[in-house]
Amino acid sequence: MLLIPCPNCGPRDETEFHYGGQAHVPYPENPSELNDHEWSRYLFYRENPKGIFAERWVHSTGCRQWFNMLRDTVSYDIKAIYPMGARRPDLAAAPAGESGTASLAADSTTTGTAAPSLAATSLAATTTAPEGATK
Which parts of this chain are annotated as the region Disordered (predicted)? Predict the structure, then answer.
């Protein structure tokens, strides 16, 4: 489980929150002038980076307030929490205060580091892919 630090309520379990998509997506200046292709780009196309990503979240079962979060999409580490409408913080200047954590337990579904061991299975002994297999 992810422990998300709500700016109003403090650290809470991720089940109390809902993801709101990519943060800092600007609304079109003249929406009536957009064609269908431009509208579709605004509505449906979002970044999908590997690494630090700015996201919107709402504490739906707590204070019901929206906030932005910088989160590493690889490790799930929460780098910064900041209010809606605020500029994205510079990570070099971001305070190292309260941050979220991902569970490292063996049954964790939030990290890729706690995968089951294959040491005792026959799959671990296979060193090459079968003929015709693709990478």
Answer: 90-135
| Residue ranges covered by each domain of the chain | 1-26+44-93
Give me 14's structure tokens.
Answer: 């991720």
Question: Rounded to whole angstroms, what are the CA distances from 48 to 8, 22, 54, 66?
Answer: 28, 9, 11, 21
Residues 59-83: pLDDT tens digits?
A: 999 999 999 999 999 999 999 999 9
Q: What's the whole-model pTM score?
A: 0.64
79-103: pLDDT as tens digits: 999 999 999 998 865 444 444 555 4
* Contacts of residue 101, Cβ cutoff 8 Å, sequence gap at least 6: 2, 3, 77, 78
